[in-house]
Write a structure and sequence with these properties.
The chain is of the alpha/beta class. About 50% of the residues lie in helices and about 15% in strands. The two termini are about 55 Å apart.
Amino acid sequence: MRTADIYGGVIPGRTDAQAQGELAALAASIARHGLLQPLVVRENAQAGRYALVCGARRLAACRMLGLEAVDALLIEGDQAEGTACFLEEHWTSRPPSPVDEADAAARCDTQRLKESLALPWTLAQDRLKLLRLGERVCALIRREGLKLEQALPLLKIPGEERCLEAASIIAERELSGGQARRLIAGEQPGVLAASRRRAVRMALEEAQQLAARLQRQGMSCRVTVQKHERGICVQILMKSDEMSPRGQEKGNTDENNAHVSRPRAGMRRAQSQPGV
């Protein structure tokens, strides 16, 4: 289809705000690999031309290259049908995770990939850096749908546990790339402090719920919280009501000392991890 026969778009002037550098990069990709996804148009019989439905940036890049003909998919229907098609494409589209993009790049020969890319190699490098974060952090980035600009600041955090906590905060609060950078740079220390307090509360609540269930089953137990050099320890100390006479005698003489010194056999301990 001739580019001169295509006009407008569902959102007029949609490419006006696009940086020329982005369109130039897209044009370079089309010049090297061709138009990988055809435009979508509908026929305007009265005007004798075709109204653009999807692909405004692709059309602008093709015109930048001076292409006179492009591949296009013609759909039937009026303006409402075209608008519905446009909305459905954008509502259902989901870009791949930057981690998946990094995995794809890592499987290629680096030199061959550099030679094949029409876009700057730094785009691939930024994604490949994410693989340094480890499998657990990459899995969280993929699961929570974090974008590249949200995930890159995580590279500045030492330690996988701290990185996981920061990534969870970014996802939970839907922080932008700039907010994520400020969070990790320490400009929002209250956010991380609140997260640590929340983690301690959750650990304590879980321990208390478990202790309550054990008590309903006839177990004698109690929850204790102790501060340690590297964090806080939440303990569940318990003993069976059906202990042997020897165990009961021992418990009558030094039960308190046993609780203070070290947990005996049969006791369970749940310890919270140090915060970020």
